[in-house]
Amino acid sequence: MQLSVIIVNYRAYNYLALCLFSVELAARGLACEIWVVDNESDPLQLLPLQQHFPKVNWLINSENIGFAKANNQAILLSKGEYILFLNPDTMLPENTFKQGLQYLSKHIGVGAIGVQMINLSGQFLPESKRAFPSLWASFTKLTGLWRVFPGSSFLNHYALGEMGKTGIHAIEVLAGAFMMVRATLVKSLGGFDEQFFMYGEDIDLSKRITDAGYAIHYLGCLKIIHCKGASGPYTQHRDYHFYHSMQLFVRKYQSRYGGAIGLVLLMPAIRIIAILSGWKSKLKTLGFTTKRSTISAPYLDLEMHTIEAIMAEMDEKPPIGWLVYKAWKIYMG
Prior knowledge:
- This protein is an alpha/beta fold.
- It contains eleven helices and nine strands.
- Strands 1, 2, 3, 4, 5, 6, 7, 8 and 9 form a nine-stranded mixed β-sheet that branches.
- Strand 2, helix 2 (about 45-50) and strand 3 (about 55-60) form a beta-alpha-beta unit.
């Protein structure tokens, strides 16, 4: 088995259907298995997908056990030489798997790879390539200073703004939305750290991969769509997990943040930021926010050749995401 694709789903069935269409296309000609771990599963929404994608291996959880733990469930059962952790709100061109596997097979010192991600508007997502979150990088990220000079290595080091988005680069951190890794490596590391319910687990795994002596490479020549936010809008509950994960991360790697003294300073700062974020979330509930594009039309009416035509749009010039989205709306009726 060459590749195991692992997708953790949480209330994103419409997106998941489109994702699986593109995954099956990308898997053609490969020895590939697909695992979907469905957290807090809804049988009524899941059944049509199970019928439409009979080759997919489904792991059903009655409750939401989190991203890290759900991925680890599938890791234990996977048989591929390589594992791809993939979000359900992504779509891939047909060459993605083949080119990713070829790269890893040729570069034995590389433990994991990521790709260039764009949103539905065709905009580059900066989390595609990241540095380890140092104090300064975290400050410029959380305060928004990176937006002033997005190409600066000083003000936007966390998103490696100085590195071209279309090139191939050695980086420190990949996004869990697309992370292709060597199976023996990730299994030897014990998979994701289950202390992290959601958020931060991809940074932690990236850190442990590099600590194990392997490089992480960003392949800007490969491009996928990542819709983002498919599991629902940001809420206080999600904010809690985000900032709780931040605290867990700082404690785990406190030597990188000034040790015990750093903890004394950072923990209150994180709590203050969390409170401010909570106020922002309350404003969102009052309507002071932009509306996120969603895919809610019936998805099982799509034919395979239609998906192939849509995916071909991803090789065209921007705004790729907009073209794909419009194509979905046209074909979905």
